[in-house]
Amino acid sequence: MADKEFDVIVIGGGPGGYVAAIRAAQLDLKVLMVDDRKGKDDKPAPGGTCLNIGCIPSKALLDSSKHFAHVRDDYADHGIQVNDVSIDVGQMLKRKDQVVKQLTGGVTQLLKANKVEFVNGRGKLKADREVELTPHDGDAYAVKGKHVILAAGSVSFSIPNVEIDNEAIVDNIGALEFQEVPERLGVIGAGVIGLEMGSVWSRLGSEVMLFEALDEFLPAVDKDISRVAAREFKKQGLDIRLGTKVSGADVKDGKVTVTFEDSDGEHSETFDKLLVAVGRKAATEGLLDDDAGVKLTDRGQIEVDDHCRTSAENVWAVGDLVRGPMLAHKASEEGIAVVETIAGGHGHFGHDTVPWVIYTDPEIAWVGKTEKQLKDDGVEYRAGNFPFAATGRGLAMGHAPGSVKVIADAETDRVLGVQIVGPNASELIAECVVTMEFAGASEDLARIIHAHPTLSEAVHEAALAVDKRAIHKAN
């Protein structure tokens, strides 16, 4: 029998869970959130994979390594002479840990300030929205929720014959903790995690080889954009092997030998470290009791409708547990939409306007449809492209590779997709998302005055190019 009853119980404290809990508290609902993660100091560390071992620590390392690479490779062009530049890996990792600790501590304070009851431990959903709580520092007990939001996130995939020990063969967690720069780093998977972590250690001096089973590089991205990105990564020394299937990895004397097969047959390479970055899966293990009434899909995700309702009454699921991209901001917005629906409002969530970002250098960002998707769907469209190198700001920066591509409906001119590869792509995509949310046209982007000189002018000119009237390039 449940000891307490809450309006909302949230299982999982990542970007979907803690945001949902705070929003529910703002709406005067009685809220409990349970999250099992602890930090390196053995204290509660809400924030999920994103804050602890994903988005935030990886961006801290990406930023540190980018500064190092720019000092080493680019500053001389600006007249800045720096000799014998070196990297203190220990200090870089310390800074990363400080960033993580500050943010997870901030989430803890936000929960407290909003009067969200917080349990650091495990939560399991049982029948009739009863939740079994197992705190790290106490005995198990049961609580009941009028509504339950499942937000347990995801875990890394593994692959056959490659055993992760987070020493020689690592997942994304281990790749954040290398105590020194590996001379040679192998990466299985040339997706977001593989490219970002490969970039970090490549900038610091590691020889990086990425094995990608697919024949196409970044298939979710427009080909014009992925082609530019691939060219830049090659210049940076990333060796990306497409159409390559890894069959096994063996550790001997501290080295990892990877066996793989491509169109030329079977080969092997030896590395100091091997990162396995082949994707993630919904973290449903231990989350649901057999009588919880929540159905799973064939892919092991929780089955939900367009409003994140599960098959069990008043049980909801958000984020990496459900369909759609495994992105922190997607999880947060789903969590808010669910809570606002619970509170009697209209929870809006734009499934077609979720922006994606890869935080490499150059950054890659996109929203909406690619040309290939539109062709496959039989949609008539027009597209405009503009390079950052043709902008005054890009030229003044000294190195501004990449471009912006705007795709609009041929008849209505409504923006259907935008693809960006280049500096600050993660920030520039925002105005394109806003335009699409308001059903805007490429003409709207073309008519809006953009400050000069800025990188955002590339978005402006790409929109103009849709109608073949870009000013600063030949149409």
UniProtKB/TrEMBL annotation:
Task: Supply any other comment.
Answer: The active site is a redox-active disulfide bond.
Lineage at the top is: Bacteria, Pseudomonadati, Pseudomonadota, Gammaproteobacteria, Chromatiales
What does UniProt list as catalytic?
452 (proton acceptor)
Q: Name it.
A: Dihydrolipoyl dehydrogenase
Q: Which organism is it from?
A: Wenzhouxiangella sediminis
- Provide the cofactor note recorded for this chain's UniProt entry: Binds 1 FAD per subunit.
SUPFAM superfamilies documented for this protein:
FAD/NAD(P)-binding domain, FAD/NAD-linked reductases, dimerisation (C-terminal) domain
Q: Where does it live in the cell?
A: Cytoplasm
Principal EC category: oxidoreductase
